[in-house]
Amino acid sequence: MVSHQQLAAATHIGMLTRERDTASACAQALDELRRALPLDAATLLSIDPITGAHLQVAGIGYTAMTSESLAAEFVSTPWYANVVRQPLPPSITEDAEDAASGAQRFRNGWFYAERVRPAGFRDALTGALRHDGRLVGLVNVSVEGPGTYDTEARRLLASILPALGVLADPTAHTGDLHDVPADAAANLVTAEGVIGLPGRNPADVLDDDQFGRLVRAFADSDGLRLRLLWPVDRGWRRVVLRRCTVGSPVTRRAVLVSDTPTPLPYGLSPRELEVLTRAARGQTNQAIAQALFLSPRTVHSHIEHLLRKTGCASRAEATALAVRDGVLRPSPEDLAHFVERTGEGQARLW
């Protein structure tokens, strides 16, 4: 029967899924798990969505290096498939041989003999963590005494696995943490590749190689945010690039890219948007004309048209509006003029 202390611990772990500080929440979750189950060591592991490696996000009695090394070995064993397949986390205590398949008992296998037993543990529970239908990590609790984790303990851990899955998923709350609109498509972009986000459509702008160059330039800048407009097919997208500053180690080395379909604001034409962007970075009419292969008179006409459309009284007012509201279509070379910064010396992401 579940005790009041176990119920309180499980409830608190569920509440931790709302925390913005993922690392702290994961550590607190293991502390709560220690109140619910006897344990001498525990590890909470997240699967890196790019490399597939198991990374420790919290541990009790395990260093990250030890935990990750053990996980890398364990996932290659037949017992890992057993963990992923079973609805209840398997324990060493109730490690029953499958007579139909002739599967070897875990306690008779090499991993127990060479890794678990020498560490001083006689019983352990391992659970697969899932979120949004995806396998996102593992949790393991170990104890020195034998015969500790019975069916009741397995069921208790199983009831906590969904909350631990949210905590272990490096992408779980990325959009919410960075205030991405509910209807926006979004991805995380790292040096290793693009990561999908739960409940979000992929950002179509990432199909554009030129836009990819812009993301890489942003990652190498000291900027925290960049708002812009970008063409996709025959339409336009309102795009925001954000340097991730909260969340898991995976998300903190990523750029969050979100896009939302939008018409060009103020009825601007694509050419007028391009002229406005170049004006906002301080180029003269002559420089804009040379860059766009236009005559200075044509550029002057575009400036007059965009002033009328935006309701601005001067070129300076229009460029201030462009930067303030992200009415820009920048190139990688423009970023020094347009990225938003708070503080100096921001670390590069890759």
**Helix-strand makeup class:** alpha+beta
Question: What is the name of the CATH class of the largest domain?
Answer: Alpha Beta
In terms of DSSP E residues, the strand content is: 15-25%
CATH architecture identity of the largest domain: 2-Layer Sandwich
Total number of domains: 2
Strand count: 9
Main sheet record: 5 strands, antiparallel
CA-based shape: elongated
- Rg for CA atoms: 27 Å
**If helices are DSSP runs of H or I spanning 4 or more residues, what is the number of helices?**
13
SSE series:
HHEEHHHEEHHEEHEEEHHHHH
* CATH fold-level name of the largest domain: Beta-Lactamase
The amount of helix comes to 25-40%
Mean pLDDT: 90
Q: N- to C-terminal separation?
A: 51 Å
What report would you give on this structure?
The chain has 2 domains: 4-168, GAF domain (Beta-Lactamase, 2-Layer Sandwich), CATH 3.30.450.40; 174-338, Orthogonal Bundle (Arc Repressor Mutant, subunit A). Strands 6-5-9-8-7 form a 5-stranded antiparallel beta sheet, with helices on one face. A 4-stranded antiparallel beta sheet has the order 2-1-4-3, sandwiched between helices. It has 350 residues and is of the alpha+beta class. Helix 1 (4-16) packs antiparallel against helix 2 (22-36). It has helices spanning 4-16, 22-36, 64-74, 78-85, 110-116, 151-168, 174-177, 209-219, 270-280, 285-292, 296-310, 315-325, 335-338; strands at residues 41-47, 54-60, 123-131, 134-143, 185-189, 194-196, 225-232, 235-243, 255-262. The protein contains 13 helices and 9 strands. A hairpin with a 2-residue loop joins strand 7 (225-232) and strand 8. The two termini are 51 Å apart. The model is unreliable at 97-101 (pLDDT under 50).
